[in-house]
């Protein structure tokens, strides 16, 4: 009986697996053009299974592949020389991808382009169940302004983007708190408004009166003294902290109607930006009183127990003093993030708890180290600021 | 003797031609990365002959071509699968281009991307002798702001870009005149600040005190009633004029510190935008008093003699009245523009002269229907506004 039951279970399991496998192969034909396509472009497309399909004319190519999420999917050529192919189902949210034509990695001519992975490349949007919070809606919209400035520290022109909320231009006497918000590695100052939709997230929060009107400043986290001889761990030492503190903040306070005090200043970032801004926060508690770390902490990439005496020069040693000084210490992470993020953020949280340091922690369901995690983090975090 | 001289001349001509032809083949090895490359990208490059060289890894491709100015140049593959190749010398200024990999037209992964020819594609900058006027310099910089708005006329979200000059945010009482500035066909609202460098041109003019501080508004010239049943010449009828007059101008006057009167409002455009804005100018002489038409006029594409009684409903019939009303009617054209632009603009100028209508005319040396022509036009035109 026992053997029989086992056999039944095995047979049932095998046929269930086969059915699942077969179902997995069936591509549901309800593809629609991606919402981040170039105007009038029919491809790439997304279906209800969250598969991506794209197409390109390449009459004499040997091989065309759709390259997304670390997997290259072979596409097929029809008699007109048009290649078409699909990916497996993807996570909800925004993903970078590219085409591979006979070994050449190129952007898909159908999509808009986004700066990530150190280059302008294709992106696709898989509809998510909660996409309403970052949708373009008929609500009052803030402005996103490009501000070019000359940095003496880097001896170069740099650019930051500034979100001013709807009503900023009309309410000429009102002053606003400021969130300094940083991108991740191999991204730039455009990431938060293009991939991240920070402006739309704030527009929507403000329309629902779920956030305090605020200015958001997004700078480029890569800043080096071009003539510097100081080299640290093989790379030139970053001067981003000095650029932000001594050049960007004074410029923003002079050019925009800010409330220029620590109680009205927040700093946050994602991944590399979370690491950078956590260090800047702890070095400048007289400048900022709110902190947000999205998918990153300053112990990255270590997952070891943190030695609070030596970590960041002992800045977390006095838990009580920090609790009095910091208005919000906020961390967020996706539930599908890869190694080492869960372990590293986990070790950091354990340190905070050991030190009795108050913090808030959010997990983004079913998302990895990607922009839907960070959009959700911003949505949560921004609603808690300056209240 | 006469025969002998002729023979000498013929022989001399032939050898000069051969020498010239041979010299033409020699590629001077002083290539440098283009100024509009993505960060850290070594290709595409430009040399002193104004040739473009680019390179891409495509190990199993049959054929890779550099496609620029209507010519496809074959590239060559080395033993590592890296393709490299050059174009013939190009005109000074900005050009769109693309790569062709086994028949697939794709952006070059090395360049920045620009919206033109109805898609985001590669661009390259050939240094020009007068490039100082549009260079990024250490002068005060204005802001370029993205403004999303909902258009009732098109029942859609649209976007315009607004340049506010350096000092706009700091001088909270100052009001500014406004230039409405339009892109060409298959381009969009980003063209004037990316390809056109309108913000840098104004920054530089203002630093030299060669222009009056002004706001520039750049909208998208494509606007249609999505549900419209009206179809004109196979295409849906444009409502851009109504969008600009009844939606954009009131919005800008409410949101920015404008001087809201005709004496402080200019309108200009390039190519399709010149045609559109000329019609809008003539229909709304109570709204605008300055006009600039860059490489285009409202008789395009006709080169016929204009019948002033019927052209634009007879709006040019009363030359004296127009001279009193219009503060500046300005036209510009490149000396290398193709058919039908010289003939069409020529016919329009002949009409203005016949009607005794005062206008200024500028020719951009050695440029065709391209952005260096339009940068130069803006530089000239903007310096004459609101004075």
TrEMBL record, chains A, B:
<dbReference type="Pfam" id="PF00756">
    <property type="entry name" value="Esterase"/>
</dbReference>
<keyword id="KW-0732">Signal</keyword>
<protein>
    <submittedName>
        <fullName>Alpha/beta hydrolase-fold protein</fullName>
    </submittedName>
</protein>
<dbReference type="InterPro" id="IPR029058">
    <property type="entry name" value="AB_hydrolase_fold"/>
</dbReference>
<dbReference type="InterPro" id="IPR013783">
    <property type="entry name" value="Ig-like_fold"/>
</dbReference>
<dbReference type="InterPro" id="IPR050583">
    <property type="entry name" value="Mycobacterial_A85_antigen"/>
</dbReference>
<dbReference type="GO" id="GO:0016787">
    <property type="term" value="F:hydrolase activity"/>
</dbReference>
<feature type="signal peptide">
    <location>
        <begin position="1"/>
        <end position="18"/>
    </location>
</feature>
<keyword id="KW-0378">Hydrolase</keyword>
<dbReference type="InterPro" id="IPR000801">
    <property type="entry name" value="Esterase-like"/>
</dbReference>
<dbReference type="InterPro" id="IPR014756">
    <property type="entry name" value="Ig_E-set"/>
</dbReference>
């Amino acid at each position: 009986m026992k053997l029989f039951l086992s056999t039944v279970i095995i047979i049932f399991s095998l046929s269930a697996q086969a059915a699942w496998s077969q179902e997995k192969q069936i591509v549901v034909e309800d593809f629609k053009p991606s919402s981040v396509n170039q105007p009038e472009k029919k491809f790439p497309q997304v279906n209800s299974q969250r598969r991506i399909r794209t197409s390109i004319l390449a009459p004499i190519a040997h091989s065309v592949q759709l390259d997304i999420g670390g997997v290259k999917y072979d596409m097929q050529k029809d008699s007109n020389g048009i290649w078409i192919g699909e990916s497996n189902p993807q996570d909800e949210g925004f993903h970078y991808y590219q085409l591979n034509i006979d070994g050449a990695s190129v952007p898909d001519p159908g999509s808009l382009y986004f700066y990530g992975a150190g280059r302008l490349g294709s992106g696709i949007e898989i509809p998510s169940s909660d996409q309403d919070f970052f949708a373009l809606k008929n609500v009052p919209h803030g402005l996103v302004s490009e501000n070019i400035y000359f940095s003496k520290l880097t001896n170069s022109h740099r650019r930051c983007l500034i979100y001013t909320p709807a009503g900023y231009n009309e309410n000429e006497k009102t002053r606003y708190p400021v969130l300094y918000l940083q991108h991740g590695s191999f991204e730039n100052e455009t990431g938060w408004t293009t991939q991240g939709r920070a402006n739309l997230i704030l527009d929507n929060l403000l329309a629902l009166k779920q956030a305090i009107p605020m200015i958001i400043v997004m700078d480029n986290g890569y800043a080096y003294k071009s003539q510097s001889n100081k080299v640290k761990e093989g790379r030139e030492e970053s001067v981003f902290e000095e650029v932000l503190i001594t050049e960007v903040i004074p410029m923003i306070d002079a050019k925009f109607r800010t409330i220029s005090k620590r109680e009205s200043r927040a700093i946050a970032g994602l991944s590399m930006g979370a690491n950078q801004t956590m260090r800047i926060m702890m070095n400048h508690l007289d400048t900022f009183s709110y902190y947000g770390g999205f998918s990153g902490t300053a112990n990255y990439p270590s997952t070891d127990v943190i030695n609070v005496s030596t970590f960041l020069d002992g800045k977390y040693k006095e838990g009580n003093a920090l609790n009095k000084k910091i208005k919000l210490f906020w961390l967020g992470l996706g539930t599908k993030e890869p190694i080492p993020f869960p372990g590293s953020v986990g070790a950091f949280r354990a340190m905070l708890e050991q030190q009795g340091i108050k913090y808030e922690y959010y997990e983004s369901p079913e998302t990895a180290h990607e922009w839907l995690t960070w959009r959700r983090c911003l949505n949560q975090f921004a609603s808690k600021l300056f209240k």
